[in-house]
Design a protein that fits this description.
Elements: E1 8-15, E2 22-27, E3 36-37, E4 40-42, H1 49-61, E5 63-76, E6 79-91, E7 99-105, H2 107-115, H3 123-129
Parallel strand pairs: 1-6
Antiparallel strand pairs: 1-4, 2-3, 2-7, 5-6
Domain Nudix hydrolase: 6-127
Organism: Haloechinothrix salitolerans
Cofactor: Mg(2+)
């Protein structure tokens, strides 16, 4: 990180549905505009990390989630992202705020995004290390 730049703390969510599909959003803004990623965003001043996760997922996906355990922390440039495993408690999926799209992806669909370079850098390795890749049905 260049000298004089401060860390920007962010919160995100790792959400799977009952079928094992993973929730992703297509970023509408930089960094990584147009790429698929976990939903999340910047922590507001004085906000608790789990409150930020719930707020960001509601804003970007329309879903109300319950953040549980910390999946892990990723640093991308000046962004320090705290991702939490979450469960959906209410809402209907829709893209909002700075997300261009929001969808559930099974393993085959996720692998296609990965092959095509449509995921944010490092997402697959990170999810693999957290045992959080989609487990939804694979087509034969």
């Amino acid at each position: 990180m260049p000298r004089g730049q401060s860390i920007i703390r962010c919160a995100g969510g790792v959400v799977h549905d009952a079928s094992g599909r993973l929730l992703l959003v297509r970023r509408g803004r930089e960094p990584s505009a147009g790429k698929w990623s976990l939903p999340g965003g910047r922590l507001l001043s004085g906000e608790l990390m789990t409150d930020a996760v719930a707020r960001e997922l509601r804003e970007e996906t329309g879903l109300t989630v319950n953040p549980a355990s910390l999946a892990g922390i990723v640093t991308r440039g000046r962004y320090e992202i705290h991702d939490y495993f979450c469960t959906v408690v209410a809402g209907a999926l829709r893209a909002g705020d700075d997300a261009e799209d929001a969808r559930w992806f099974d393993r085959d669909e996720y692998d296609a995004l990965d092959r095509n370079g449509d995921l944010v850098d490092g997402l697959t390795a990170t999810l693999r290390s957290w045992h959080a890749l989609p487990t939804g049905p694979r087509r034969t």
